[in-house]
Every structure is written in structure tokens, then in C-alpha cells.
Design goal:
The complex is a heterodimer of chains A (about 160) and B (about 500). Chain A is α+β, with helices and mostly antiparallel strands and about 160 residues long. Chain A is about 40% helix and about 25% strand. Chain A has 2 domains: about 5-75, no CATH class; about 80-165, no CATH class. By secondary structure, chain B is α+β, with helices and mostly antiparallel strands. Chain B has helices at about 5-15, 30-40, 75-80, 90-100, 185-195, 210-215, 225-235, 320-335, 365-375, 400-410, 435-440, 465-480, and strands at about 20, 45-50, 60-65, 105-110, 120, 145, 150, 160-165, 165-170, 175, 200-205, 240, 250, 255-270, 275, 280, 285-295, 300-305, 340-345, 355-360, 385-390, 415-425, 450-455. Classes of the chains: A alpha+beta (about 160), B alpha+beta (about 500).
């Protein structure tokens, strides 16, 4: 992996320094991949800036330099919507309890509750988990939001699913 | 001797000092293509880069292995088909057309005897980047494989359909394929597999034997198989072997085979790429995604590539040579089989696929229009812009003869014909249309439209009989004597000895 990346102007978000999912090319290996990134015109606006060549024009032979900060690499094909739909569908008829066993986690969560930062260990775990996912896997949450919207907007499908 | 593998073909070149082996470390990043470009321009030996990069698969790159000599582009392929005595282009065309008239069905061999199965990687062992794919032009969107055979399902033949669609490598398991709607395999994907939400199995065969690579460049009628025509070309069946992960068959002696699925409703960037016109062509377009399931190969596979853009002008490369040496004879046979009085159909050597020269009789008025229309509405619609029609006794492989025919026989008023305006499809790889004229770059289909044209450079005069010819020669001799030449060297002067009246 090199320290220099390439992308096309058409892939850039409208707002600068917005966190976004971007297809970028490693300038050295020419490997092409998607990543959660932040982009800026000045390196000082990012904590770990790398040069980003943004190509544009009919034949992409015009370019300008910007800076990119890689947050997290994403699988090239993004989120598996079918898997997400299946899990969402199964969730309609199963318990919504999430179980985990950890003495350490329980101590930490109880600390957060007894120091009155959260009302319950369940609430603490829920909020912390969603906060982490929003920061690190926002693509997954966005995809799930779409699936949920789709489910809620389709009562007929839900009714038919109940007959299966 | 007929070569049965790409490796035998390379040996044939080496034995004749037409191949140079480069053992020094050469980078896949522009350096291998730069060396190949120089060889293509200067008619040099075909370069094989033995030491490219230390990757999991110890492959060598071969730069434009099918490029023939500039004066006789067909020569190396003629040698590989056991036609070493064929010197003229016309003789080569006649020999190849003759062989294509007798297709031979392929032979299925056991996988244990298939050279392409000597190493097999499936599942988590698959790593596309374990091969040192070349980065060919500055400004390309990625590293490419662009000299290969894509094998795709064909319900009309069990051997599948063979064609060439360039492949841009993305990561260890994904690539994008240039699928332009209008071509057979892309149509099967866009109009059959994708609407069914079904992945289309394909195999990308790299370093196939010359007969396979040639038949990949041919336009084979629906229901017939490229595999059978490849067998006809070398007068021996092509050996095929089943894929590891699909029902497709691939040439058994290939250097490297990439098996995978073209996923429905998925797109990745493809391009820009320095294309055959000799210019960078962009912008990137969204193209179907190849998800790789298996890689099989020979030990130390030889991976051929083509420096596209170096086959225009006087230079030759693999694709320009394959057009001349494979697509041309195939088109000649196809037009003859369709009932046209064509003696040779040849891609104009300096323009790759854009202009073709067709030597033909013209048995009735309107015949040339009919012939052009036939080609533009069948195999020639996407790439060919115009034809030059010349008389059957003009050699279309001889540029001087063709230009002479255009200069002498084409009346600018009556012999330049155009088919409509902006009605006919055109690959978006051309550089004369703006991105808007080419249509949306977001879709996987070509929206480019343009007119098509042809130049009638056939003679309009009735064929001269012997006496008219002689009278013309006698008159020419009189003029020359009048101009001051000695009458002694002429044989048709009358008693007056050419003196002016």
C-alpha cells in the first residue's frame, strides 16, 4: 500500500471533509478499493492526510491535488442487501434479546449505570454499540435503514411472509 | 509444423530469432509496455519479460506476441498454422479462407492431461493480484488483461461463445469487464442473465494457442462455434477441458484461466484506457463485475498483453495483426458465403478496425450499397466507420494500390456515399464524439450514434477489350514520340512514326 491515492471527481461528495465512502486507487499498486474516508483541500484539516489526485475531464487527463484520510476499508461489493433482508425478516418472528457473556464488560457497564451516565446496562450497551457502528460502519446502518423502510412500507409483503 | 499451444508459438518465434527474452527486472508499471511500444514501432523482436515482480504466481509478461512484421503482418501466424511458404497477403487469405471452410469440432480431454490445470486455486486461495498484470498506458484506470479469450455460455453450442472483452483488475477477487451492448456476450448478460438476477459464468483464457486467439477475433454466425473454426484453422481439433467451477469448457493448453461469474446488478468502474485509436479514452464507465472463483495455470505462465494504440499508422501490435490476419479472412469467407462477389475483405492496415477495404466485382447497380448495408447491420456495425470498395483485381492489402484506386476512380460528386445521419451505432471508444454525443457514461451500453459511409473506388468504365487497350497504348506512344522520345523503342507506331499532323 502506498501513501498516494487517485479518485475521480465524480466520486467526490459535495461537501468537503465530509466522511464518505469513496472508491480510490492505490497509485503504487493500482489496486482499486472502497473505503470510508475524509477529504480536504488542506492537509492540516485532517489528522492523517495522504495526497489524493482527483482526475476529471472527458478523458480524465485533468487533475487536482487534495488530501484524504482513510478511516476504514470496505469490501468492494459493499453490503450484502439480501443477507440483511433475510436477517430483518427472521427478526420479525424471533426474540430481540442480544446475549453476551463477559465479567469485564458487565463491570464496566454497571459502572456506567451506577455512575448515572445511563439508566440501565441494556441502555448503555445499546447506545454504545450504535454509536460505534455510526462512526465505523455507517454504510451498514444506512443499508439497514433502507431495508427497514422497505419492510415498513410493504404491509402486503409482511402479510404474505406471515403465511409462509 | 502447427503450434498447439501459446508456449509452442513462442518457441517458434524464438527459433527464428523473432523473440527476445529479457531477464533483467522490468516493472509491470508502464516499463513492460514502453519496451513493447518501441518494439512495435520499430519492427523489433517480440519481447518476453521473464522477471517482472515477485508474486505468488511466477508469471512472465509477453508484449504483443501476435504482432507480425510491418510488411507482412500475417507472417508469424502463417508459420504457426503450418503455412510457412505463404508469402503474399493474398495467398495467406486464400489459404486461411480455405481452411475455415472445413471447421473441426473440438476434442474434450481429461483434466489430468490438461496443461492449464497444473496449478489450481479455488476459494480462499484465489488472488487475482498474484499475477503481475501490466499497467499499460499512463492514465489508464487500472491494470489490464486485454489479450485473452472470454468464454461465455451459448445455448446453441456446448462449447460456449468466445470473444475478447478487456478486463480491468480491481482487487484480489474482482475485475470489471468492458461489456458493450450490441456484442453477443454482453447482450446475453444484459438481456438474459441480469433480468433473471442470475450471475453469468465466464472463463477468461489467457495465453491460448494461436488458432484460439484468432477465432476469438472472428465473427462466427449464430449457432456455430469458434472452437470448431479454430480447429479448421489448424486442421486439427482444439483440445478443451471442463472448468473447475462451472459447466464451461476452456482450451486445455492455455497458460492461465480465470473462472468466475459476471454478477447481476453490480457495476464497477472501467477505464479510462488508451485504446486502439492511439489516444486515451475516457471517462470511466460503469461496467459489469467479474467475481473470480478459481484460477488455474501452467507453471510460470506466460501472460500476453497488447499495447493498444500502437497498431495505428505504420506500427503493428497484436490487435491490428489479428484484425488483418484473422478478422479479414473470416469476413472474406462470410461475405462470400452470403452470396457477395467479394475477393478480399481487409481491415485497412493503418486504422485498425475503423476502415475496411473490400475488393469486389460489381455485378449490378446498387450492389455496393447492398453489400455495405449487409455489413453495417451485421458484424460491422460498432467498429467500422466506412469502406473503400475497389475492383476485384486491386490488392486491398497494398496501400499504394488502394490510394491509387481512390484517386483515379472516386468521383467526389458521385462516389462518396453516406448512410443517414447519426442513426448507426458506434463504440464509444472513438475520439471524434464528445461525451454528450456518446451518451451517458453511467450505463453499460453504448449510446453513441453516427453515420456510416463508403467510397466507391471501383472503375465506372466498361472493361476494355484488347483492341481498345491497344489503341490506347498506340496513342500513348505517339504522344511520347511527339514529346521528343525516340520512336525506336515503341512497337505500335504507324508509318507516320508519331509525327504530328
Amino acid at each position: 500500500m502506498s501513501n498516494h491515492y487517485i479518485t475521480a471527481a465524480e466520486h467526490l461528495p459535495d461537501e468537503e471533509t465530509t466522511e464518505t465512502t469513496l472508491q480510490i486507487t492505490d497509485a503504487e499498486t493500482k489496486r482499486i478499493f472502497e473505503a470510508r474516508v475524509r477529504i480536504a483541500r488542506e492537509p492540516d484539516d485532517l489528522t492523517d492526510p495522504r495526497p489524493l489526485r482527483v482526475v476529471t475531464g472527458p478523458h480524465e487527463n485533468v487533475s487536482e491535488e487534495r488530501y484524504v484520510e482513510l478511516i476504514d476499508e470496505i469490501d468492494s461489493l459493499g453490503i450484502d442487501d439480501d443477507l440483511l433482508r433475510r436477517l430483518a425478516s427472521e427478526q420479525e418472528t424471533t426474540s430481540n434479546i442480544v446475549n453476551t457473556r463477559s465479567d469485564d464488560l458487565k463491570v464496566v457497564l454497571r459502572y456506567l449505570v451506577e455512575s448515572e451516565q445511563y439508566d440501565s446496562t441494556a441502555e448503555a450497551l445499546r447506545k454504545i454499540a450504535f454509536q460505534y457502528l455510526a462512526e465505523n460502519r455507517s454504510d451498514l446502518l444506512e443499508a439497514y435503514e433502507d431495508v427497514r423502510t422497505e419492510f415498513e412500507a410493504d404491509p402486503l409483503r409482511r402479510a404474505l411472509a406471515g403465511d409462509e | 509444423m502447427v503450434t498447439d499451444s501459446f508456449r509452442e508459438y513462442l518457441q517458434l518465434l524464438e527459433d527464428a530469432d523473432d523473440l527476445v527474452s529479457i531477464s533483467e527486472l522490468v516493472s509491470w508499471d508502464l516499463e513492460a509496455s514502453a519496451v513493447t511500444t518501441l518494439a512495435n514501432r520499430n519492427d523489433g523482436e517480440v519481447p518476453i519479460f521473464e522477471s517482472v515482480e515477485e508474486t505468488a504466481i511466477d508469471a512472465a509478461l509477453v508484449g504483443d506476441p501476435y504482432r507480425g512484421p510491418q510488411c507482412r503482418p500475417w507472417e508469424f501466424l502463417a508459420r504457426s498454422f503450418g503455412l510457412p511458404d505463404v508469402r503474399s497477403g493474398t495467398a495467406y487469405y486464400e489459404a486461411v479462407v480455405d481452411r475455415l471452410r472445413s471447421p473441426r469440432e473440438p476434442r474434450v480431454v481429461d483434466r489430468d492431461s490438461a496443461a492449464c490445470k497444473e496449478a489450481v486455486h479455488v476459494g480462499t486461495e484465489v488472488d487475482l493480484l498474484s499475477i503481475p498484470w501490466p499497467y499499460i498506458h499512463q492514465g489508464d484506470g487500472g491494470r489490464y488483461s486485454n489479450l485473452h479469450t472470454v468464454v461465455a455460455p451459448d445455448p446453441e453450442t456446448q462449447w460456449g461463445h468466445w470473444s475478447n472483452h478487456r478486463m480491468m483488475l480491481h482487487d484480489d477477487a474482482l475485475a470489471s469487464l468492458l461489456f458493450l451492448a450490441g456484442e453477443q456476450v454482453p447482450n446475453r448478460y444484459y438481456y438474459e442473465y441480469e433480468p433473471r438476477d442470475e450471475p453469468m459464468p465466464v472463463a477468461v483464457v489467457i495465453g491460448a494457442e494461436p488458432a484460439v486467439q484468432c477465432s476469438t477475433e472472428m465473427w462466427i454466425p449464430t449457432g456455430r462455434s469458434e472452437a470448431a473454426f479454430a480447429g479448421g484453422l489448424k486442421e486439427d481439433p482444439v483440445d478443451l477441458v471442463p472448468c473447475e467451477t462451472s459447466d464451461l469448457f476452456v482450451p486445455a493448453t492455455a497458460e492461465l484461466v480465470i473462472e468466475g461469474r459476471v454478477l447481476p446488478n453490480e457495476r464497477l468502474d472501467e477505464g479510462p484506457f488508451g485504446d486502439y485509436f492511439g489516444y486515451m479514452n475516457g471517462p470511466r464507465r460503469s461496467m459489469p463485475v467479474l467475481a473470480v472463483d478459481a484460477i488455474t495455470h501452467r507453471p510460470e505462465p506466460r501472460v500476453p498483453f497488447c499495447v493498444e494504440g500502437t497498431g495505428v499508422g505504420y506500427g503493428q501490435n497484436s490487435s491490428s495483426t489479428l484484425q488483418t490476419a484473422a478478422a479479414g479472412p473470416d469476413a472474406t469467407l462470410g461475405l462470400q458465403a452470403a452470396g457477395f462477389d467479394v475477393s478480399l475483405a481487409v481491415p485497412w492496415r493503418f486504422t485498425s478496425r475503423t476502415v475496411w477495404v473490400i475488393a469486389t466485382d460489381r455485378p449490378y447497380p446498387g450492389y455496393l450499397h447492398e453489400l455495405a448495408n449487409f455489413i453495417f447491420t451485421t458484424w460491422g456495425m460498432l467498429h467500422i466507420d466506412f469502406f473503400v470498395f475497389v475492383d476485384a483485381d486491386v490488392d486491398p492489402l497494398n496501400p499504394r494500390a488502394v490510394l491509387t484506386a481512390i484517386a483515379l476512380e472516386s468521383d467526389p460528386d458521385a462516389d462518396f456515399h453516406q448512410f443517414g445521419v447519426e442513426r448507426m451505432p458506434k463504440v464509444p471508444l472513438n475520439i471524434y464524439q464528445t461525451p454528450d454525443e456518446k451518451g451517458s457514461a453511467d450505463v453499460g451500453t453504448s449510446k453513441a450514434k453516427t453515420a456510416k459511409a463508403y467510397i466507391d473506388a471501383t472503375t465506372d468504365r466498361p472493361t476494355a477489350n484488347g483492341s481498345e487497350d491497344e489503341a490506347l497504348r498506340a496513342r500513348a506512344q505517339e504522344v511520347l514520340v511527339d514529346a521528343g522520345l525516340s520512336p525506336e523503342s515503341f512497337d505500335l507506331l504507324g508509318d507516320e512514326g508519331g509525327e504530328s499532323e
